[in-house]
Amino acid sequence: MMEQASSSGVKKLRVDVPGGVSGEVKKKMKMEEAGKLAAVDGATTEEVDVKIIISKLHCPLCSFPLKPPIFQCDAGHLACSACSGLLFDNRCYDCDCTGSYGRNPALEDLLRSIRITCPYDAYGCRATIAYCDSRDHRRACPCAPCSCPERERGGCRFVGSPPMLLDHIAAAHEHPGSGPAVVVVRYGQESRLALTAARRWHALVGEEDRALFLVSLSAPCSDDTAVSLVCVRANGGGGTAARYTCKLALELPGAGGGEEEEEEEDGGGVVVMEFKVRSSALPGGTPAMDQRAFLGLHQKLQPGDTLTLTVRIDRLIQPVGAAAAGESTAT
User: Fold this and answer.
1) Reduced to 3 states, what is the DSSP secondary structure of residue 311?
2) 275 Cβ partners below 8 Å, 6+ apart?
3) Cα–Cα distance between 146 and 70 in angstroms, integer?
4) DSSP class of 278
5) Positive or negative, the Cα torsion across 153, 288, 205, 117?
6) Strand pairing partners for 271?
7) For the purposes of burial, counting CB atoms within 10 Å of the CB of 9, is it exposed (0-12), middle (13-18) or buried (19 or more)?
8) Tell me, what's the pLDDT at 147?
């Protein structure tokens, strides 16, 4: 069920109520399939639609959604875990009681039962998530919308999930005479590409898992050209730790500069860079500077110039639980 916002700031949420509804409910409820109960591990569960003032689900101090563990003073004033840890002498911010903050397990259970559909369901996500986890889910959702690479230069306003974006690029941005806009690559194998002033990017798609990548030209300075490669997906934190590495080799006489373990090989101006592939939702159609590793060229690309690239992408094998451990790692 979608959450629906009204002009009064009230959102419509789904609540799973173990053992039925108890206590006085002041919000208007509509029973779904009234009278029908589903047995779950010996207990009974029914679902209701409920309207809740959304601010009631947020910490009164930081205004972020309340999520377990939740603390309250003896008078019932709430604080999230982060804010309660900042209270001097465990003193309530409202009633000034000291040493009285403790866990509220009943409220924690209730908040876990308040569930919404992902706000990106229009882009293909079918997840139903606890409201208190919705912010983290949005930042890592595999269906989070990404912009078209032609947004900045070509004015294309398309926005969609990575699979939707892949279909859009194949249908709308093929350039006859400059090679395909979408190139299928095999992990662990090299692929040769060409970039020009007219064809400044290619979309790459992994044959094994259909992951979408963008290799593109940019101009970090007025007299420089840079080549970057990113994985096109949500880049907000949890679940977005690096999953791929890339070896990028650029054939250009006199090339130099760059970052991320770049080295110049013998044999005619080949510049090589190896790096962990970062993620970007392509805000504005290109990855932000802090979302990419780039190979910088200390010269401006002229009309008619062609940059020949060799790209090899490898998948990282992560141990179980590595994604959770890498939540704080920007990619």
Assistant:
1) strand
2) 245, 246, 248, 260, 261, 293
3) 34
4) P
5) negative
6) 250, 264
7) exposed
8) 93
